[in-house]
Amino acid sequence: MSTHNIQVPLPCSPELWEAPTEAAWENIRKSHTEQPFFHSTIKNLVQDGDKFQSLPMDNLSLTLLLHGIMSMCNDISHFDNRSIYLSDIDQGEEPWRPWRRRMAHALETWKAHYDAYIMGLSQCMGDGRAPRSNQKQETAAILALYHTAHIVIKCEIRHLQATAGAKAIFGHIVMPEDRQVSEEWVRDWVCIQTTAADHAAWHAAQMLREGILNLRNWEVSGVFHYPWCLFIGTLTCWAFHHFGGEMTDGQDICSHLDETDMDQTQSRVLMNHMVSLMGSVSPTQIRRTLKKCCTHGITVEVARYLRSVRWTAAFEAMKLLMGLSQHHTKPNGVGHV
């Protein structure tokens, strides 16, 4: 469903929803303004970031709006409905289209509002309110979705999957000629459309960094989208280093055995090294990390996590990452780093 068809207000405030009595509810309602409509808020977010920033938001409203932005991006990308949302702002067919820039800016505006909300929440905890036990997990999960949205705007995920060796994508069999087209697309994306690839790789690294620092073994209390976000982030890092390394002088630093002989200590060291390098630089400087880190650690670790997720898509993603973990092999005709 397109966002312009959702003509309902945003959820009421937690205080109003959790009012203990009818009288308390009535008193709270009198002091609260009516919630803005979902579609108009999305429109303000995309077209007038300053107006959006002035609106009071809670976690549920911000989560719904993030999903709304992602839905809008999908609608524009797959059904070419720019005119519905953005008055057809594209001029020509530039590699980095104006609508993608605008949606990226909308995501950044959303992130600023979300950060302000989390800061306020932390300050309330400092005033004596008890923190929610799963606050870090909730934050890591929603920010993973945010980073994935940036990656989706800047890349074609199906090409990443096909290039990495996926045999089928959402029920569609990947033929050898499809894989070749995807590999050429990803190579051009990394080597020619460098701005998009650099920003996507940076967001992937930030997602992984936040998960490593704030979660225990990627545990987010069963949030269903998180495993898929991790998978997309891992594929993005792999593609960035695999194809980016082709245009960079220097030798590959990989000197370890196949993933079948890699213990968890080694895979975590490799993962942490890659994520810390990529996460500590700006998007414009992220190519400095090429040929300086190895992607085997992250593919092994995320595959190990996906093995524990009871979901068919996660199982298929796990098998794909295990294939990428093989050192100096070329399954499905695709070389891996």
From TrEMBL:
* Keywords associated with the record: Metal-binding, Nucleus, Repeat, Transcription, Transcription regulation, Zinc, Zinc-finger
Alphabetical list of Pfam families matching this protein: Fungal_trans
**Recorded superkingdom:** Eukaryota
Show which residues constitute the signal peptide: none
A molecular-function term among this protein's GO annotations: DNA-binding transcription factor activity, RNA polymerase II-specific
User: Is the RNA-binding keyword given for this protein?
Assistant: no
The record's annotation in InterPro entries points to: VerF-like, XnlR_reg_dom
Specify the Xylanolytic transcriptional activator regulatory domain's residue ranges: 1-111
Q: Which GO terms describe its cellular component?
A: chromatin; nucleus
Q: What is this protein called?
A: Xylanolytic transcriptional activator regulatory domain-containing protein
